[in-house]
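dude i think i finally got it to work??
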Amino acid sequence: MQLSLENKTALVCGSSQGIGLAIAKELALLGTSCILLARNEAALQEAVKTLDCSKGQKHSYAIADFSRWELISDLVKQLSSEKRIQILVNNTGGPKPGPIIEADATSFLAAFQQHILVNQSLTQTLVPGMIEAGYGRIINIVSTSVKIPLNNLGVSNTIRGAVASWAKTMANELGKHGITVNNVLPGFTSTARLKSLAENLASSKGISVEEQEASMTAEVPLLRFGLAEEIASLAAFLASPAASYITGTSIPVDGGRTGAI
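look at this
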């Protein structure tokens, strides 16, 4: 199986911590040079230091605020002019939890901009270079709500579904160039966002965070939360030559929790 990504460069969004950083680490182990993209420079500086360099990889970072989607294109044009980018990992933190009936229009607009418009801008900017290089992988970190909406995540469910539809359309259009587009759907994964979600739910129910987390893990056939590294393993595989005939898919990594075939 050809998994090597030597002489490839990846732009990994939201990669100063959590799932994004775990993906960057896994890609680096396969030989990828990574450009980390997030808004916290101090965290980015520390994150870059954790990436493997044993195959001559050269890692770097850039600062970006995904709420300012209109500035993303110029930044990435500059980055891609310095180094050809063949792998794009779209990974943006999800909207705040809450019932959809209580969400206002600005919440939907902000989420649309941070997910759809950022993804679109990054993809439009990088695809010409992928075509020229003869290699392209676009991997979107989304959510299992693409399959079944999750309780108390009204805005997130709406936007995640839009991202999945965007990705499927993009996969159909870019297939003729050999560029693949796939979605990774994390389930309950031990990250700061999951902790925040558990705290929010616990507060609304009047129970402890520990009780809420126990209730959540009981929904998972494997009876535990996932690790960011387990999400990263699938993302790295989809970025590799071995996944060249996989495109337009949405693949859960959720311990079996999603109740859909």
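The first strand starts at residue 9 and ends at 13.
im so relieved honestly
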